[in-house]
């Protein structure tokens, strides 16, 4: 984990220079556009566009690999589960039934297989832009951009504190875990059976909560001393003025959203099944 | 002293931030109980922050915490479930509004625990109904699968709430009661 307490990667690509608010709008419009459809063609186009943007940002693959595999495993388990629980769900969407793989109590049909593929593509479509956002946006800049979008600065500051506090919390967590380990309440393999280790792990939460509650006192006192919350507005050290490319991106986002809504309204069926 | 839940002072801001960080950073701890569904001890934090600081703080901290956790560990924000975390915390936080309940000063009665339990159970039910419907209508997931996931998640959350959440709030209040066990001599 980097010093900033999140996955931010230093860099100087088009997306690193882009305004945080614009990137957030891009993420939101992308998410909404994806939510509207269940159509493999649209996901294929969006996924390629997303991967293209991700390549432009030149984030090292090493950093992205973990999240990619996590989501892959997630969708794989999800798909298998859907196929086992509802082997013929696809038929309720298409109206046709083409038996394919017998699984004893029922038969997985081609429609469901295609549906699972579409659903996995839907989840994967969300990944590149989310990664783009989290890897290229500095948390402090993110707070500034939230404020720019009209979110009250106190709320934006709460988000900022959350990001800022995670590395401290991770450190505190390790300290408590070490202290517990010294008393024979560790979480490694030699410390007992799985249940015992899980219990020890959850016991860490109590002192962690205690120290966090104390942190609340000291941090809010420090902020009060510096006059936080006296003004109705606030400027941001990490705030940036919007550049021309930001405005173009904003226009693209609006176009994407309008195109998605028009497509949904006039043309797209609920679920696209070519066969 | 309890202040209005709508007033945002510095403490509120810091509490939300730290609560969200705490929830976000501990949500990865979990035991898988159904495919892509976990028993997360961190749910107890929703109960604790809700009870100690009120429904508004609980909602925002739960929402931000869940979004941060999704950013860090899954690469995709599951908005339906993130809002679900917030809703759970908001319902659990309703106890904060009941009369005479003040864990900071050690004021908690048996009646409060019963009410806390009811609020919590309603909250878990409402939030999972919301998350499930969100997944069915927005994501297009099959109903039967979502029912299995939400029911197991509901049972897990209830277990965490009853076994960890309520005792934690009770213990916290009791710990703060030490300085009030004085009697008036006549």
UniProtKB/TrEMBL annotation, chain A:
Its main location: membrane. It is a multi-pass membrane protein. Keywords: Membrane, Transmembrane, Transmembrane helix. InterPro entries: ABC/ECF_trnsptr_transmembrane. The chain crosses the membrane at residues 24-54, 66-86, 113-135, 248-267. It is found in: Membrane. This is Cobalt transporter CbiQ.
Automatic annotation (TrEMBL), chain B:
The lineage of its organism: Bacteria, Bacillati, Bacillota, Bacilli, Bacillales. NCBIfam families: PRK13661.1. It comes from Paenibacillus vini. This is UPF0397 protein. The chain crosses the membrane at residues 12-31, 43-65, 77-97, 117-140, 146-173. InterPro entries: ECF_substrate-spec-like. Keywords: Membrane, Transmembrane, Transmembrane helix.
């Amino acid at each position: 984990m980097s010093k900033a307490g999140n996955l931010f990667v230093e860099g100087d690509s088009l997306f690193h220079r882009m305004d945080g608010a614009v990137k957030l709008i891009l993420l939101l419009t992308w998410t909404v556009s994806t939510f509207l459809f269940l159509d493999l063609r649209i996901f294929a186009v969006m996924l390629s566009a997303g991967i293209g943007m991700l390549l432009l940002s030149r984030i090292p693959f090493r950093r992205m690999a973990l999240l990619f595999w996590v989501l892959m495993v997630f969708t794989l388990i999800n798909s298998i589960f859907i196929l086992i629980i509802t082997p013929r769900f696809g038929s309720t969407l298409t109206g046709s039934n083409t038996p394919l793989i017998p699984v004893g109590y029922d038969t997985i049909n081609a429609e469901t297989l295609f549906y699972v593929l579409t659903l996995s593509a839907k989840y994967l479509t969300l990944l590149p832009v989310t990664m783009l956002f989290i890897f290229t946006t500095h948390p402090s800049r993110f707070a500034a951009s939230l404020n720019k979008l009209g979110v009250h600065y106190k709320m934006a500051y709460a988000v900022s504190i959350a990001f800022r506090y995670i590395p401290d919390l991770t450190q505190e967590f390790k300290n408590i875990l070490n202290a517990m380990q010294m008393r024979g309440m560790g979480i490694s393999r030699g410390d007992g059976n799985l249940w015992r280790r899980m219990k020890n792990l959850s016991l860490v939460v109590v002192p962690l909560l205690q120290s966090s509650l104390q942190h609340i006192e000291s941090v809010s006192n420090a902020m009060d001393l510096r006059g936080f919350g006296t003004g109705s507005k606030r400027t941001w050290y990490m705030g940036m003025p919007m550049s021309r490319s930001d405005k173009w991106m904003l226009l693209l986002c609006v176009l994407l959203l309008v195109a998605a809504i028009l497509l949904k309204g006039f043309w797209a069926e609920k679920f696209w099944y070519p066969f | 002293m309890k202040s209005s839940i709508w007033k945002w002072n510095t403490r509120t801001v810091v509490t939300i931030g730290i609560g969200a960080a705490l929830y976000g950073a501990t949500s990865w701890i979990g035991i898988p109980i159904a495919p892509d569904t976990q028993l997360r001890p961190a749910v107890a934090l929703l109960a604790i922050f809700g009870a100690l600081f009120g429904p508004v703080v609980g909602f925002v901290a739960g929402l931000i915490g869940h979004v941060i956790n999704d950013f860090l560990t899954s690469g995709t924000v599951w908005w339906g479930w993130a809002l679900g975390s917030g809703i759970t915390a908001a319902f659990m936080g309703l106890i904060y509004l009941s009369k005479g309940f003040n864990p900071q000063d050690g004021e908690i009665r048996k009646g409060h625990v019963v009410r806390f339990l009811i609020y919590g159970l309603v909250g878990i039910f409402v939030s999972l109904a919301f998350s499930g419907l969100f997944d069915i209508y927005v994501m297009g997931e099959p109903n039967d699968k979502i029912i299995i996931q939400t029911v197991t998640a509901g049972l897990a959350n209830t277990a965490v709430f009853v076994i960890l959440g309520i005792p934690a709030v009770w213990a916290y209040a009791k710990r703060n009661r030490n300085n009030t066990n004085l009697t008036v001599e006549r």
